[in-house]
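Severity: low
Component: inverse-folding endpoint
Summary: output formatting inconsistent between runs
Steps to reproduce: submit the following structure tokens with default settings.
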């Protein structure tokens, strides 16, 4: 029996990961360690809450005692998703990003070392590489050049993790993935923000000229990669994950309008995000060749499935939209 501690398991990617892991392998048990910030939602894992191989601990990774107590429960692996994850919020206030992403990771790494955890998978982002021109791809060798407070805090945590590996032999493996989409994503991020606005015939805020390019991957394909890295990845290595699916934000907006049958007049151009990265694109051939990872979702199927999920889960969306999120939205984009 393998006992895995997942941090941030009540968020978008972590909750999908835990569901996938518990369904796929009966010899795995999971401790979900999550602080339940604005982005953490117990409802994301309601369906597994009673699974005897699942345990939830309400804890903060910046709390050393809480982290140590959790790792003392015969944990053999740690998969670290917990983070402050939204670039726009990091521009409004970078403090929580440094606290959780940098200091929290340091505390977790200390505990991983102390309890002789056999594998530590550090889930990171392609944003640590910075921004690309019109050509080229990020590889695992691309130097880190983060441009936002969010990506700077993630790059700091990546470097700290690798420094622990180098200095203490901590069994660190890093994954760096491009933009995820799929069910349970908090509606501050582009795709669920636009779907949930359009479902209510509200306008969608497009930053600047809308020609920023992002690479999109379905969350379940990302998570399949994280699981493979956990099982078979080489310690001390970085593995990029991406969807080979570059779209401008405007292209994506038009696709969403078409799929939801809404008029182009709902596009509202707003001032660009300060320091907005222009293009991300990722070379994921290392994980394909070394670990046999492949994508299962096409963007078209994944997007249709995601829209259907949001349409079927309006209560989940509305609970979020009526809470703290509403104040954030008005600060960021003005009134709807
Ligand atoms: P999310 O914001 O949806 O969820 C983050 C989770 O972490 C929440 O459940 C929150 O309660 C928890 N958390 C935050 N601070 C914590 C703390 N101090 N202690 C314990 N738990 C805490 O984020 P997500 O989109 O699911 O991203 C998960 C990870 O994947 C992050 O590390 C992010 O950098 C990385 N990532 C995200 C994307 C993406 O497109 N969303 C892409 C690549 C990598």
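Observed output (run 2 of 3):
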């Amino acid at each position: 029996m393998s006992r895995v501690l997942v941090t941030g398991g009540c968020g978008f990617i972590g909750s999908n990961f835990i569901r996938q892991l518990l369904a796929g392998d009966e010899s795995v048990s999971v401790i979900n360690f999550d602080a339940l910030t604005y982005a953490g939602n117990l409802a994301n894992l309601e369906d597994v809450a009673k699974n005897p191989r699942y345990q939830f601990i309400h804890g903060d990774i910046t709390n050393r005692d809480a982290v140590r107590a959790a790792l003392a429960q015969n944990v053999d692996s740690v998969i670290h998703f917990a983070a402050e994850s939204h670039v726009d919020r990091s521009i409004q206030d970078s403090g929580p990003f440094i606290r959780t992403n940098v200091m929290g990771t340091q505390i977790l790494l200390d505990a991983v070392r102390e309890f002789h955890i056999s594998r530590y998978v550090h889930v990171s982002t392609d944003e640590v590489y910075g921004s690309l021109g019109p050509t080229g791809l990020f590889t695992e060798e691309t130097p880190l050049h983060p441009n936002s407070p969010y990506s700077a805090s993630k790059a700091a945590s990546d470097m700290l993790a690798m420094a622990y590996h180098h200095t203490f032999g901590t069994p660190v493996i890093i994954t760096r993935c491009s933009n995820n989409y799929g069910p349970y994503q908090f509606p501050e991020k582009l795709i669920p923000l636009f779907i949930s606005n359009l479902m209510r015939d509200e306008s969608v805020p497009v930053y600047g000229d809308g020609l920023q390019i992002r690479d999109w991957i379905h969350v379940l394909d990302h998570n399949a990669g994280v699981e493979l890295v956990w099982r078979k990845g080489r310690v001390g290595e970085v593995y990029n994950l991406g969807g080979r699916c570059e779209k401008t934000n405007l292209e994506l907006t038009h696709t969403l309008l078409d799929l939801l049958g809404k008029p182009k007049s709902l596009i509202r151009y707003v001032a660009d995000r300060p320091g907005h990265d222009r293009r991300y694109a990722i070379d994921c051939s290392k994980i394909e060749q070394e670990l046999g990872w492949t994508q299962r979702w096409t963007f078209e199927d994944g997007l249709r499935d995601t829209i259907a999920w949001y349409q079927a889960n309006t209560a989940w969306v509305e609970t979020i939209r009526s809470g703290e999120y509403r104040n954030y939205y008005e600060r960021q984009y003005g009134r709807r």
